[in-house]
Amino acid sequence: MRVAGTLTVNDWKELTYILKPEKNENWGNAFHFFEERIRTRYLEPIQAILEIEKYNGEGFAAINLQCSLIETIESFINGWVYNSSNNKWYDKKIENGYAQMGGKD
């Protein structure tokens, strides 16, 4: 399953296995994931919608994606992770350089 452009869930799992807070060499790859996800899931679709120019409500769809983008960035900033298998949100805290998962009300 692709999560960011051509990048897959397995690509992300492999990267997170070697991604360490104290080592810089893999953080460029992590940023690439983030950038691809934002570009392919939000920025390019918003641009494609705006280029339709039929003025039949496509602006609403573009605004909806922009709101979703804001929520996505907020989730990244706050470390919120959604687990779709049990429909729960988790706070991802960094302790001793490693992510710890805790419940979010």
Automatic annotation (TrEMBL):
Give the top-rank taxon of the lineage listed in the UniProt record for this protein: Bacteria
What is the name of the protein in this document? Uncharacterized protein
